[in-house]
From TrEMBL:
Record domain Endoplasmic reticulum metallopeptidase 1-like C-terminal: where: 641-864
PANTHER family for this protein: ENDOPLASMIC RETICULUM METALLOPEPTIDASE 1, METALLOPEPTIDASE M28 FAMILY MEMBER
Gene (UniProt): CG11961-PA
Subcellular location, record wording: Endoplasmic reticulum membrane
Keywords: Endoplasmic reticulum, Glycoprotein, Hydrolase, Membrane, Metal-binding, Metalloprotease, Protease, Transmembrane, Transmembrane helix, Zinc
Entry coiled-coil feature ranges: none
Any Pfam family hit: ERMP1_C
Membrane topology: Multi-pass membrane protein
Chain ranges passing through the membrane: 29-50, 377-395, 416-438, 450-476, 488-508, 514-534, 541-566, 586-608, 615-635
Entries under CDD domains matching the protein: M28_Fxna_like (cd03875)
Highest taxon of the lineage: Eukaryota
Source lineage: Eukaryota, Metazoa, Ecdysozoa, Arthropoda, Hexapoda
Residue ranges constituting the Endoplasmic reticulum metallopeptidase 1/1-A TM domain according to the UniProt record: 412-628
Protein name (record): FXNA-like protease
């Protein structure tokens, strides 16, 4: 049957309803906007609201009618009290005294009048561990540890709950992590008052040095008297402010934790995909979870806020913008979870239940789906094979109904499969090219404030590529004997085959997140079975109805899931550094998400009249959004809400020669750009035109002559900017290395005893010179044992006690020539929470930044010395 006669056949018997939609054997073209609108409406009215839905917060007035429940208003009060202390940097009075006092007083209040035993312990600890290539060393940092246990228990199985009350110098740390501290305090209050007994004790760790980074959790798990009894962990952190806390890491290898999470949780929000992304270092953050896992082998659940990451680690991370509903969300969950896990039989013998990974995800925040990795493998394989089988059966039916030989149909399948693969490839290339183009024309991050631009720029481009290839194929093979309705079905079946094969491949590779592809196949196959059973598959257009109905649930779910994903990631592009082209990354994300959400939707466009015009219309939307991106709407930043980040260190640098004479001394602003748009500020600030790249110093000076103390900054240090300026005012406690003694151990070996004193954040870089080799030292042994590349990097910070640190180094020179110098020390000092040290010049410089910039100012020093 030619397409002409096919058209006649369809025209012959249209009923009223069909007449409105169908013209010939295609859908009338003007239904295309409604088709797009339908999916957009589902996204906007179901997926997005589900992503942001919070429970009704309970107030103190509700307390009587809601005994034994978490009261959001109380948590909110806790947070406001904590945040009113100001930024709580390790070593500052606010952190070491004020916050400690406030928390201790609250704990004493909770202690009085409870039927449980409550013990409060203030831990002051010193220690060190190796973090990437740096020795992270701390002295006298503090933790407040509170243990709540049933009366007269002798249980030695504790549940650990952790959050941190310290903050970065930049901001008040309301979201990160005051909100979780406040929630923990309220949970503790409810537990203390409750007459529902706990079976095992719960240790609440109010962690005093997380931003430092991760020192206090190390101090607790390696040194505290209760650490060895902690058999499971709930870690609570934040890279945002508000929203729902997501469970993004579990275990590892403890499925019983997820089982208990599912049982207990009131408002589930969890994702295996988050876990895989996090564990493969796609997310530029780290949490205490890793420390507890690696240094204490404590399995656990890691949860965090990710919403509104724009304010994370800035001065806008305020308590006022933290929604009360978020407290209720986390509080309800945490209270139930603490009870569930502390009372579970598994915690008492967790090693016995330590087997296998899990796959978990919540469905729209309604309920949690959870199964083991083995079950996942079985499920993936069965669904993929069944999908392939049903598609094969559909091909056979197609042959029977059309009278075309099966071999010919299979040949068409082969062609269509190639076309579909090509369309995915073209669809992927186009957004990537656009991402490169946006960056090249100096328009990166245009979607930073108006994220819908991502839909208009990258998704539409992907959809265009995905649709135009089959459209051209159908156009060029118009004379095909199969009617268009059958050919579009063939295209969809081929997409399903493609997904099934991908599911199998990724399952073999051990990627747990592949469950999303499996779900896609599953729902498509259900639609296909309905079509076959009702014989609708023989019709030109009617088969679309079951197909669309079965595509709605996965679409709504994937859109929900993806919305959360984008909400989390978009703000992160403001701190991924200057080296990453954010538009390229977003283009790749858009391809992945678009493929997942709309892979079975876009091919339906071929069924419309004027399909090529409709598909080209998508490019019209891209063009329109490109024009919008050039207007102020596409300017990434907004003051207060979507700020551009900079760290500005007012630094004095002094370099000594071998005779201990100053060979170079200068002062200036050292600026670390944190996103791709440094030039926006460079063009706006007069002084910035004087900025030089630090790059050439990296070849000449130890650690580029920079006082960096965070490992994370080292990757981008070559791009950092230096602007000559007046001398900073440094605190009285300037970093100093004193040589206490220098002794010859053997003709080829020498030992230095030294003492380091200075402000509460210091960085020490050690570079052996002239063939000398570091043989031993008093620092952590790992860098020597693992042969790290010098310069060795010791980060040293202190909390309550700033006593000098004594250390020794033992170096060897095989030639025994001690006349030349042996070692160079680079010494960085930081006064990152001393507002009083900000000079008028520095203040003027900071004020010259545009109002959408959030610049963290701090005085710093760097000195190099040769021994
Ligand atoms: Zn944090």
């Amino acid at each position: 049957m030619s397409s002409e006669t096919e058209e006649k056949r369809s025209k012959a018997q249209p009923n009223g309803c069909e007449r409105a939609f169908v013209q010939g054997n295609k859908i009338k073209w003007f239904w295309a906007p409604a088709f797009f609108g339908f999916w957009l409406l589902l996204y906007v009215t179901i997926s997005i609201p589900a992503c942001h839905r919070l429970p009704r917060p309970l107030t103190i007035q509700d307390e009587e009618t809601h005994p034994d429940q978490f009261i959001a208003e109380r948590a909110e009060k806790n947070l406001r009290e904590l945040v009113s202390l100001g930024p709580r940097v390790v070593g500052s009075r606010q952190n070491e005294m004020a916050a400690l006092k406030m928390l201790s007083q609250k704990m004493q209040k909770i202690r009085s009048g409870t039927a449980n035993d409550i013990e409060v312990d203030v831990q002051v600890a010193s220690g060190s561990y190796v973090h990437w290539s740096m020795v992270n060393m701390y002295q006298s940092i503090q933790n407040i540890v509170v243990k709540i246990s049933p009366k007269n228990t002798n249980s030695t199985t504790y549940l650990l709950v952790n959050s941190h009350y310290d903050s970065v110098p930049a901001g008040p740390g309301a979201g990160d992590d005051g909100s979780m501290v406040a929630t923990m305090m309220e949970v503790l209050r409810v537990l203390a008052k409750s007459d529902k007994p706990l079976k095992n004790p719960v240790v609440f760790l109010f962690n005093g040095a997380e931003e430092n980074p991760l020192q206090a959790s190390h101090a607790f798990i390696t040194q505290h008297k209760w650490a060895k009894y902690c058999k499971a962990l709930i870690n609570l952190d934040s890279c945002g402010n508000g929203g729902r806390e997501i469970l993004f890491q579990s275990g590892p290898n403890h499925p019983w934790l997820m089982k208990n999470y599912r049982r207990a949780i009131k408002h589930p929000y969890a994702s295996t995909m988050g876990e895989e992304l996090f564990q493969h270092n796609f997310i530029p953050s780290d949490t205490d979870f890793r420390i507890f896992r690696d240094h204490g082998s404590v399995p656990g659940l890691d949860m965090a806020y990710t919403y509104n990451g724009f304010v994370y680690h800035t001065r806008h991370d305020k308590a006022e913008i933290f929604p009360r509903g978020s407290f209720q969300h986390t509080g309800d969950n945490l209270l139930a979870l603490v009870r569930q896990i502390a009372n579970s039989p598994e915690i008492e013998n967790s090693a016995k239940y330590a087997k296998g990974h899990t796959i978990y995800f919540d469905v729209m925040g309604w309920f949690l789906v959870f199964y083991t990795e083995t079950e996942g493998v079985i499920l993936n394989v069965i669904v993929s094979l069944v999908s392939i089988g049903i598609c094969g059966y559909a091909f056979k039916l197609m042959s029977v109904n059309s009278g075309i030989k099966l071999e010919k149909i299979l040949k068409k399948v082969g062609h269509t499969l190639l076309v579909q693969i090509l369309s995915v490839v073209v669809g992927a290339i186009l957004p990537v090219l656009l991402g490169l183009f946006m960056d090249a024309v100096h328009l990166p991050l245009s979607w930073f404030s108006n994220s819908w631009l991502i839909l208009g720029l990258y998704f539409t481009t992907f959809f265009f590529g995905l649709a135009i290839v089959p459209a051209l194929y159908f156009h060029w093979t118009k004379r095909d004997k199969l009617p268009i309705g059958q050919r579009v079905q063939l295209l969809l079946h081929c997409h399903c085959l493609l997904l099934s094969v991908l599911t199998l491949i990724f399952t073999i590779c051990g990627i747990r997140s592949v469950f999303v592809l499996m779900l896609s196949c599953l729902f498509y196959t259900v639609g296909l079975i309905i079509n076959i059973a009702t014989k609708l598959h023989t019709k030109d257009v009617a088969w679309v109805i079951p197909h669309i109905v079965c595509t709605v649930p996965p679409f709504v779910f994937f859109a929900y899931f993806s919305h959360g994903f984008f909400t989390t990631f978009i703000p992160m592009f403001g701190r991924f550094g200057e080296n990453l082209n954010p538009d390229l990354a977003v283009a790749v994300f858009s391809v992945a998400v678009g493929f997942l959400c709309c892979g079975f939707i876009i091919p339906v466009l071929q069924l419309f009249n004027k399909s090529k015009t409709i598909i080209c219309g998508l490019m019209g939307i891209t063009l329109l959004c490109f024009i919008i991106a050039m207007t102020p709407i596409g300017f990434p930043y907004r003051p207060e809400t979507n700020v551009q980040r900079f760290a500005v260190l007012h630094t004095k640098r002094t370099f000594h020669d071998a005779q201990n004479k100053v060979r170079r001394q200068e002062s200036g602003y050292f600026i670390m750009p944190q996103d791709r748009r440094t030039y926006t500020v460079k063009n706006a600030v007069i002084n910035m035109t004087l900025a030089q790249r630090i790059g050439s110093d990296c070849d000449k000076e130890i650690n580029c002559g920079l006082p960096l103390y965070n490992q994370r900054w080292h990757k981008t240090r070559k791009n950092s900017l230096w602007i000559p300026a007046s001398e900073p005012v440094l605190g009285e406690n300037v970093p100093t290395v004193l040589l206490l003694s220098k002794n010859t151990v053997s003709p080829t070996k020498i030992r230095y005893e030294m003492q380091l004193s200075g402000p509460n954040h210091m960085a020490l870089f050690i570079q052996p010179l002239n063939g000398a080799k570091m043989m031993d030292w008093s620092f952590h042994q790992a860098p020597l044992r693992l042969s790290f590349e010098p310069p060795y990097f010791i980060y040293f910070s202190w909390g309550v006690n700033g006593d000098p640190l004594k250390f020794w180094l033992e170096l060897e020179k095989p030639n025994g020539n001690w006349n030349s110098s042996t070692l160079e020390l680079g010494l960085g000092g930081h006064w990152n929470h001393h507002k009083e040290l900000i000079t008028p010049d520095f203040k003027k410089f900071l004020d010259s930044f545009p109002h959408y910039v959030d610049a963290t100012p701090w005085p710093a020093s760097f000195e190099s010395r040769i021994f």
